[in-house]
UniProtKB/TrEMBL annotation:
Residues 1-124 form the GH18 domain. InterPro entries: GH, Glyco_hydro18_cat, Glyco_hydro_18_chit_AS, Glycosyl_Hydrlase_18. Keywords: Glycosidase, Hydrolase. Belongs to the glycosyl hydrolase 18 family. It comes from Oppiella nova. GO terms for cellular component: extracellular region. Pfam families: Glyco_hydro_18 (PF00704). GO terms for molecular function: chitin binding; chitinase activity. This is GH18 domain-containing protein. GO terms for biological process: carbohydrate metabolic process; chitin catabolic process. It comes from the Eukaryota.
Amino acid sequence: NTIAYLKKYKFDGLDIDWEYPVCWSGDCSKGPKSDKPNFGKLLTELKAAFIKESPNLSLSAAIPSGYAGGPADQAYDIPAMAAALDYLAVMTYDMAGVWDKKTGHHSTYQGCISGSKYYVDKGM
C-alpha cells in the first residue's frame, strides 16, 4: 500500500507524473476518455487516505503547461486536482511535440507565464 511504503522509507509525500491521462504520448485519441475522471478520483481517494492515515503526507502532481485545446483540457479534471493536491509542478516545457504539425520551440518564457496562468484561471 502506498502509505505504508511512504512511511517505511520516510518519504514526506507522493508526486504523480502521469503523461498524460487520455492523451497517451500527447495523442488524445489513444487513451480512454475515462482516464480523465478516473485520475481525479485516484487523487481524491489518495488524499482522503493520506488525511485519515497520515495527515502530514503531501500529494502533488507534475502536469503539462496548460493552454486552451491542449492536452490539459482533455486529460485533467482540474477541479478534482485543485481539491486534492497540496501543490503541483507545471512542466513549462513540452511546448512543442508530436502533437504539432510543425517543429516549434520546446520551452519559452511566454509559455511559462501563460501555462501557469491557465491553471490559476481554472481555479488551481
